[in-house]
Amino acid sequence: MEKTLTQKPSDCLKFVLFGPESTGKTTLAKQLAAHYNTRWVPEYMREYLQKKWDVSKKKCEREDLLPIAYGQMHWENELSEKTSDLLFCDTNLLELKVYSEYYYNGFCPSEIEEFALKNEYTHYFLTYIDTKWVFDDLRDRPDDREKMFCIFENELTNQKLPFSILKGTQEERFTNAVRLIDEKTRKRNNVI
């Protein structure tokens, strides 16, 4: 497991799926990775918290935040070493920062905040709330999605990070994401 939240150097273009719960991030990350025959980084928080729920029926607590962050960076760093082209991240530390501040009245461990703002990504895909909210053991705020979307959008805007909002059907989101990824790939390869 990682002992730091630092990104390891990588030549791959990293795209982050970013946004409120149940907005299609995982589905799109898997689709894009399959389309480009590359890897995607799952959401470590989901695995970590599902195990916690299964064992104790407890949700996320403050003391879970740093282990989740270390696990997420471990997965991202491990998978970025296995690709030199594209990597799709189902989430990242910035998303953990946003959720931490929302759930814990502005609290976020300083290490997470530091590296959430320091680690670099090629582009963020902010997923809109026009998807059906689907219940599971970990999702708990179906009525907060609009508010959360605004918080996520404000975070990207305030940090001056490159992002696009993905709306519409699964197919429309996929098509729009592919168009932007292809454009970024052409620019990287100096092909116009």
TrEMBL record:
<feature type="domain" description="NadR/Ttd14 AAA">
    <location>
        <begin position="14"/>
        <end position="173"/>
    </location>
</feature>
<dbReference type="InterPro" id="IPR027417">
    <property type="entry name" value="P-loop_NTPase"/>
</dbReference>
<keyword id="KW-0548">Nucleotidyltransferase</keyword>
<dbReference type="InterPro" id="IPR038727">
    <property type="entry name" value="NadR/Ttd14_AAA_dom"/>
</dbReference>
<dbReference type="InterPro" id="IPR052735">
    <property type="entry name" value="NAD_biosynth-regulator"/>
</dbReference>
<keyword id="KW-0808">Transferase</keyword>
<dbReference type="GO" id="GO:0016779">
    <property type="term" value="F:nucleotidyltransferase activity"/>
</dbReference>
<protein>
    <submittedName>
        <fullName>Nicotinate-nucleotide adenylyltransferase</fullName>
    </submittedName>
</protein>
<dbReference type="Pfam" id="PF13521">
    <property type="entry name" value="AAA_28"/>
</dbReference>
